[in-house]
Structure formats: C-alpha cells, structure tokens
Amino acid sequence: MSKQRIYLFDTTLRDGQQTPGIDFSVEDKIAIARLLDDFGIDYVEGGYPGANPTDDAFFDRKRTKDARFVAFGMTKRAGVSASNDPGLAALIRSSSDAICFVAKSWDYHVKVALGCTNEENLESVRASVEAAVKAGKEAMVDCEHFFDGFKANPEYAIACARTALEAGARWVVLCDTNGGTLPSEIKTIVGQVIASGIPGENLGIHAHDDTGQAVANSLAAIEAGVCQVQGTLNGIGERCGNANLISIIPTLALKPAFADRFETGISSGQLAGISRLSRAFDELLNRAPEAQAPYVGTSAFATKAGIHASAIAKEPKTYEHVPPETVGNRRKVMVSDQGGKANFIAELKRRGIDVPREDTLLDSLISVVKEREATGYAYEGADASFELLARRMLHTVPDFFDVISFRCIVERRFDANGNIKTVSEAIVKVSVDGDERMSVAEGHGPVNALDLALRKDLGRYQNELNDLELADYKVRILNGGTEAITRVLIESRDSTGARWWTVGVSDNIIDASFQALMDSVIYKLMKNRELAGLVAAE
Amino acid sequence: MSKQRIYLFDTTLRDGQQTPGIDFSVEDKIAIARLLDDFGIDYVEGGYPGANPTDDAFFDRKRTKDARFVAFGMTKRAGVSASNDPGLAALIRSSSDAICFVAKSWDYHVKVALGCTNEENLESVRASVEAAVKAGKEAMVDCEHFFDGFKANPEYAIACARTALEAGARWVVLCDTNGGTLPSEIKTIVGQVIASGIPGENLGIHAHDDTGQAVANSLAAIEAGVCQVQGTLNGIGERCGNANLISIIPTLALKPAFADRFETGISSGQLAGISRLSRAFDELLNRAPEAQAPYVGTSAFATKAGIHASAIAKEPKTYEHVPPETVGNRRKVMVSDQGGKANFIAELKRRGIDVPREDTLLDSLISVVKEREATGYAYEGADASFELLARRMLHTVPDFFDVISFRCIVERRFDANGNIKTVSEAIVKVSVDGDERMSVAEGHGPVNALDLALRKDLGRYQNELNDLELADYKVRILNGGTEAITRVLIESRDSTGARWWTVGVSDNIIDASFQALMDSVIYKLMKNRELAGLVAAE
Hints:
Two copies of one chain form a homodimer.
Chain A: E1 4-5, E2 7-10, H1 26-39, E3 43-47, H2 53-58, E4 68-74, H3 86-93, E5 98-104, H4 107-114, H5 118-134, E6 138-144, H6 146-152, H7 154-166, E7 171-175, H8 183-195, E8 203-206, H9 214-224, E9 228-231, H10 245-254, H11 256-259, E10 262-263, H12 268-271, H13 274-285, E11 302-303, H14 306-314, E12 332-333, H15 341-350, H16 360-374, H17 383-393, E13 402-414, E14 420-432, E15 435-443, H18 445-454, E16 469-477, E17 486-493, E18 499-506, H19 509-531
Parallel strand pairs in A: 1-10, 2-3, 2-9, 3-4, 4-5, 5-6, 6-7, 7-8, 8-9, 11-12
Antiparallel strand pairs in A: 13-14, 14-15, 16-17, 17-18
C-alpha cells in the first residue's frame, strides 16, 4: 500500500514573527529560510509583502532552493476589483512561488471585522485565488477561525473552503486561530469537512498551543485526513505559540501509527539533523535551547533516577521511546546524588575514563561527589567540573599553575564631573613553574575583572587561552537570608566550537565565581592536551 | 446528570524531582506542599521515604491540611515477606495518608529488571497493597510501562491492575513511563482495560511529554474513562517532563467538552489562583516563568499590535478561547498608551497613590518605567522599588540620606596555618543631615558586607533599621557573555511581618545589589513614616 504524502509548511517567518519579543531582520529571515530549505521543509512562508519594509525586501527575490516560497496576505477587499487592490497586487508582484491568503470563515467575524456580507467575502476569496492562479502561482487559503466558525455556522465555514478550491486553490488550511479547540473536536470537525466532499488531499491544519495541545491537534487532523501541517521552529508564535514542527516531524517519521500510513519529504538522514536545526534556530534568536524539548532537548534522553540507570545501561531500547540518534540527539545518564555506581561508570566511560568497578578510587570519587552535592555543588549541570574532579581524583590532571591569592575591589563614587562611576579591579597572584606572577585588570564587574586578571599572565599556558570565552553565567542562591550559599555556573566556549559548564559554590559570590572560572581554565588546558594526546607526557 | 469527579494527583515533589537541575530541600518541599494544598489538589505525592535523608525528614510528619499526603515507593521484593522488607517498612512508617507503589506491568521488565517470575511480581503487588491497607493507609499502584507492556502482553498488564484492585488498592495508575505513547493509542488501550472489567473509577493516568503530548494523553485518558490524573506544576519532570497540571486543570474546568461531563475539587475561585500558583512555583525554583505557557503565561492573552489588536479591543470574547480572568491572568494588547495608562493608574491606586489621568507627572512616570524595563528592570517582581520610583517622581519621598561612595574588597589568600581564607570588607561613606559618616564592615561575601556597612551608622535613622532583615536574594543574568547585565532582586522583611522586594540592574553585580539594598532601606524608612502619618511633616 502506498503511503499518503504529508506536506510540511513552516510559518516561523510569518506567524512566528508574532511572538512577543521576536523581530526578524532581513538577514535573520534569509538565514532561517536557508535552514528550513536545507532541512527539507516543503513550504516556507516568508512573511507579508506589502505590509512592512522588511518583508518587501525579503520578497524581492526567491529565498529558497527546493522549498516552495510562500507569501502571506489578505484576500482582496470587498467592493474593489482584484486588479485594483493594492494589497493583492503586492502579493502577486512578490518573488514567491505560492500565495497563502487569509480569509474569514466565521460568519460573525465577516460581519463584525470585515463589515461585508457573507457572499461578498466568498467573492473576495474566489477573485483573489483566481488572480494568483492566473499569475502562475500556487494558491492556498488559510480559513481563519475555521473551527469556531464551524461550530457557529458549519455551512458557511464549508462554503469558504469549497469556494477556494473551486477557484483553483491547491490547499485550504483549517486554522484554529484562537487555539482553544481540543483534539477530539478537531478530529470530528475535519471528518465532517471531508464527509461534506472537500478532499483531505487539499486540506491543511494550522494549530495554536493555547491549551498545550497544538502538536496533538495537528496530529489528530492528520489522522482525520488532512495532508498539510503548518507550524513553526520550536513552536514560536503569537500568545502560547504555534504547533511545534520540531515535535511533529519525528512523530510522523518514527511512530508506527503515523509512519506506517504517512510519509513526508524528510529523509532519515535529514531527520538526524533536527536536533541541530532546533538548536541553530535558538542560537540565531540568541536564547538558550529548551533542555526539556521533546526529541531534541539535551534532557530528552537524560536519566537521573538511580533505579532506572543501571537498567538503561543494559537495555536502552525498552527505556527510550525512540533511539536518540534517529533525531541527532544522545543518551545522557546524569551524575547526581540519586545515581548509583553504574551511573558513574557509564558517565566516566563516555568521557574516555575507564575505571574498574572494584577500584577504590571510584568509591572515593562517588563519596566526594555526594558530599559536595550536599553542600550545594550540582555536577549534573557542570559536566566539565565533574570530569575535572574525576580526573583529579584518578591522578590524570597535571598541576598547571597555582593561585596564591586574589583581591578584588569594587568602588563607586562621583567622578570629577559629578557622575556616579563604578570601577571593578582585580589582582591575582599565580605561581607558574615555580615563578610568581602578579596581574591586575579592570572589568565590567568583579567577575569579569577576575577573569581578565587570572588569564593575563600564565606564562607558557598564556597563548592556549586566547580563544577561551565566557558564554553564560548563572547564579543561584541556595538558602535565602544571611546564611545564603551561592552556586555559580559558568558556560565557556572556544574556537573549536566546544562548550562546557563549570561550577563553584561558596557563601561568597566572588569566591564561587572564581572557582568556576578556575575550573574552566584548567579544563580548557586539559582538553588541549587531550586533543594533542599529551596528557601522559605532562 | 451528575458529573464524574476527576481526582488531581500532583507528583511535583516526587517525579518532578527527577528534572535535570532540580533538587528540592526539605524547606522547598514544605513550601511547595503548602502551595498545592492551598490550591485544592486532591493528592500530594511528597517523595520516596527510605530512599534519601531529605524525604525521610519530609515524611516525619504530615505536610498537608486537606490534600491526601502520599508516599511513593517500590513494592516489596520477591522472595522476602512483606513484614521483612525494609523499603516497605519505611513506607508504612512514614506519616503519609496513602502509599503509591510502583510496580512493573511489562512482563519483559519483570524478567530483565526484577529477575523474578510474572507470578512473583503479582504476589509482590498483592502483599504490598495488603500491608498498606492493613496499616490504615489508602493504597494505589503505579503500573510502570503500562502501555508498552499492554502492547507486548495485554493479559499480563491487565493482571497487574486487577491484582492491585483485588488486594484493596483504591487506584491503579496507568503509566506511560517512556512517554512515547500517542493520544489515540492511550484512548484505545484505556478503553480495552475498562472493557476487561477494571472500573474507570479506579483508574488513573500518568503521562510524560516525550512527544509533546502529555497534556493531550492525559485528557484522552479522561475522555476514555479514567478518574485520576497525575502531573506536576509547570510540567517539570524527568526528560521532557510530566503532564502539566497547570495546563490540564483549566481545560477540565473551562472547556465544555470536559466541564459538561466532569468536575474536579477546584472551585472557580481557586482556579483564578492558578496563574499565581504557577509563577510562585517558578519563583521558588528561581527561574523565569515561561511567558508562552498555556493559560498562565504573561503572553497567553497577549496580542502584538497588528491586524487583530483593534478588533480584540472591541470584541475580546471572539478572539480569546477563555476569559483570562478565569485563570487569574490578564489581557495584554501591546499597543500601549490608553490601556497602559489605565493599568498604571490602577497599580498606583492599589498602593494608595491617587494621580489624576491628566497629570503630566504620570506620563513621565510611565516613560521612565518603560525605559528602565527596556534596560532590564522588572518592576512586576519588585513592588517596593516600583512604589518608591512612583512616589519619588510624584515628590512624596524625603531625601533621608545620601551615599557619597562605597568600596568593597574581596580577598582570598592563605592564612598563617596554610588554609585558604576569603575575607569580604566594605566601606560606605554617607551624608546624613549634612554630616559625613564613614563605616566599614566585614561580611559573608561582598553584598552582606555592604549591607552591614551601609546600615552601621545612619544617624537619627539608625534605630529604625534594627529590625530590617534580608530574607532572600536572587540574581539573574539577562544576556549571557561579556556584555551581561545583572538583575538583582532582594526580599526584605521587618518585625511587623511586612515583606517587600526591591530591584537593581547593572553590568556590575555589586552595583546592582547595592541599588536593591538602598531601595530596601529607603522603602523601610518611608513605610515607617507612612505608618506614623508623618510623610507630609518630614
């Protein structure tokens, strides 16, 4: 039996742009369109040409290679001919392969928002679709508020869909614009639409996450017969977001209930790039990827529980709903005070450290980790500090240098012009190869000053640290009030693209930050040697 | 027709504890149990007594008033009698109302993970439930991997459920432990379980979010007949998280498809507290609430200025799937001006500050707040700083004292005995009534030192500040890397029982902390005068 083809339609650049706090530049749009195109999405909706200068510029040429490039806009206004509607003209003029018209399909909104008759609205749909087709473009119609409209007046909602198809539209997309429709309602209504004679091959679904069910609504519509699914990267979008394509695509491809009946344009090789796609998009938005995101989050295949960890090491398949590598992700058994010995061995192994189960150093390491976690360290979030601690206890980290002392001063006062000025200065004294060196630096804040001073003169290690950068800095106060313990997590990166987290804990925030900084520097030096195969030779 | 009662079971403190990066202290657990209990949850699962010292301490007394307090643990081991199993004994001994046993219901796992026979596993379920019931506790059984187990061997999965009920369990909970089951599968399997003779009144659902459908899976199970739903606050949990009760509860209460058939223990008054509950929990975790969270996120009812905004102002009901106030949230149309001004007037009024709409000072205040929020201030979480700013701009705060300068030094070195020692010292110069005073203090960390030095000598204000205490201190880095901006929130309290939050923002953490400290001290002095009715007389 041949499988039904499901078409993937991405609206990150159009509906995703409605996300509070997100505004794409033309360059952002170009980069995102390329990501989507390379990944294998069928339709990339780029925006609303004619509505703003960014989208005008973005649509001045075709921005995709394989994907169909879609312009979004309103149907022509009632009482104006298609050839005289400036909005429609801008859509036709744009360098798009397809036009997605948004049309009212709830009679109440036709009256209140458009202020025209139901028949005039149908006529606008018809004329707009015909104009697009005549211009050689693929036409589709987003039926806004379709499900609410169907509940109020099913005949009119269906008439909108039918008018669009009769005028030559390739697709009619059923939109749950307010996002409040439930999966069982979606399934029933899609079934009724198809039963009314509209073919599922021409239907799409556009869902929003206002009840936390946009993914389920989209999949329910596919089960009921629609063949196009709209959504966004990582589920961005207005209010609670759009359906998350990053969650929908793996389910379509990997779950027998879907994979046995349907196919998409995404190959298994492309699917293995979906974790990278999701993270690349977050990078572009300059935000931290969501660790708990389905399929692609760094925690999606992570286990903390001691009771499960040893079983997972033995039989991963029965504990994982899909193999992590199919979506380009990986298994992670976390170190924490809940984990057992098997966790530790597995984690050390993943880092290339082989320790026999009966080695007493392993027991010492476990008890040190537990002791430190009891005082506030969190090694599960600080991979590099954990690896460093393990290697130190197993005697495979050289003493690169010693910090003899540091001092750091923050001073606020009025400058000569009467303006308030805050200056941070740090002095660090280190010993490298028996040689004492003192460095001083000013920074934005005491931690930045300490970082600069620490790395200012480390003798023969100096040049290795040039590409080390702080990428993120997190502070958590573990117990409020005056006896507060501060936990600092620092993320570092270097020019190889590697990123690592280190941790420091103290009742003094500067001290905690310094510990995390030191771990990061030492880890970087150790990593360099490991790459060069020099650990043993030091 | 009477409605079917659905019972809400929260496992934030047990399964939620499996979230990477989350570790609750006993104090955290006490605070969260109180939030859940006050909100009206039926069952609060507190943890795993016998497994770790935190849970032992937490279960040394009952921690809920109305909710049933549930201990989680394994069924007794095969080959050991119930009375000789130390794990079971710890559960029975705990101060819980109910025990939730986890039991294998997938024959494959019985063999591989437990290493016992199918019959021995059933016997462990039976004996454990009987022991709990005999001890006067409500018993329930979490059937681990139920759906995967059912697909592999439906008879055995059902036998586990039946054994538990026959032994006296109140509930059998069907767990989608790996999180990969789809809503349509859940619906079919729950239907088959009920058709086999297990009453829906005794069934619960426990779903995970590995395909982004934990909420849909839970609701599908309820539609199919289960009467208990398990989940966590804000959907925390292992891997991709558990079913999010914060999303499920409003759908059950507000959507006719559910509300017409089912009822929960949550009144409409309690439901209006759900946004507050969700945010209070994030506060406790010291993380930013998710703006796009269904129902409760600050963006859940927000519309970006555009085609919808003016229509929403006219006809909110047809653009919102539920009224925001039913879940204690509010509409947000981001076109500012009119709506913005009314908000400000209301916010000021709530603090006893009356400003006429046409007062130009009000416009200045609005623009200063917007400007500051754009640079990172968050007045929503810092009531006292907002009130202070408003009163300052409306000229009703006296100049109590001026800070001329401060200096703060953190030094780490080896002491005479060769131990590392970190000392923090702060010097503050203030002017009170034209009189300059300098104070110096040592503290645990630079912020503590600054706080002590600032309050050491403030002349005639000195005695008023004796009962001022710092209760909490939170730090958030607003944009990672080297241009990081630090936001510090400080919670203060005094002997009247009042608590207030102040905020400071700077690229320098010490500077940001000092701003928040200063606001706290000034707010306290202002509050004292207000209580004494002396503001005008200063």
